[in-house]
């Protein structure tokens, strides 16, 4: 994939060079609370997460989670992209930003870039969004991007209940 660009951001495929950043992001307290503990505590754990998650998804599906950088200084600020999950009929948009970059519109800007890429380059017609029902920030972002609430559900019998949103692109 060539990098996605917005006025303020570049989204590009994650690489092993991003492992230290992934350790930091996946251990952010909001990530742990609302997305879950991925068990990534070291660079080695991050490399395994990258290899078995985003990098595998690029190969199998032609999309995945992308690193989000600021254009102005190249700072890694988060991840955003599409995830193909068992239990869902369509890809869902995923996003997470480090705390200091939340509230600046970067999440929305990156999500809109991913949706545009999904429509124009990947030919996708429907994208889902899932979130913890208590994650009001993510809910607002999804709704601002045009997603509509569908229902509460569980991805598996033993999983926590989530809110499912969708958008036709």
What is this structure, in a nutshell?
The protein has helices at residues 19-26, 29-34, 43-61, 106-120, 136-144; strands at residues 4-5, 9-13, 65-70, 76-83, 92-97, 126-131, 148-153, 162-168. It has an eight-stranded mixed sheet.
Q: Could you describe the 3D structure shown?
A:
- This protein has helices spanning 19-26, 29-34, 43-61, 106-120, 136-144; strands at residues 4-5, 9-13, 65-70, 76-83, 92-97, 126-131, 148-153, 162-168.
- The chain is an alpha+beta fold and 169 residues long.
- The protein has a single domain (4-123), classed as 3-Layer(aba) Sandwich (Aminopeptidase), CATH 3.40.630.
- An 8-stranded mixed sheet has the order 1-2-3-4-5-6-8-7.
- Strand 7 (148-153) and strand 8 (162-168) form a beta hairpin.
- Helix 1 (19-26) packs across helix 3 (43-61).
- The radius of gyration is 15 Å and the shape is globular.
- The mean pLDDT is 97.
């Amino acid at each position: 994939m060539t990098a996605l660009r917005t006025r303020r951001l570049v989204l590009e495929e994650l690489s092993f060079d991003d492992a230290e950043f992934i350790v930091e992001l996946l251990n952010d307290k909001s990530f742990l609370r609302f997305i879950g503990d991925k068990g990534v505590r070291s660079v080695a754990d991050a490399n395994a997460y990258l290899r078995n998650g985003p990098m595998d998804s690029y190969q199998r599906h032609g999309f995945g989670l992308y690193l989000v950088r600021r254009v102005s200084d190249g700072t890694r600020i988060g991840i955003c992209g599409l995830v193909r999950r068992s239990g869902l009929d369509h890809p869902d948009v995923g996003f997470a930003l480090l705390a200091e970059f939340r509230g600046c519109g970067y999440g929305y800007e990156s999500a809109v870039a991913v949706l545009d890429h999904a429509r124009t380059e990947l030919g996708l017609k429907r994208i889902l969004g899932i979130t913890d029902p208590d994650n009001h920030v993510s809910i607002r972002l999804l709704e601002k991007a045009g997603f509509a609430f569908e229902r509460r559900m569980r991805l598996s019998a033993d999983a926590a209940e989530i809110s499912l949103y969708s958008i036709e692109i």
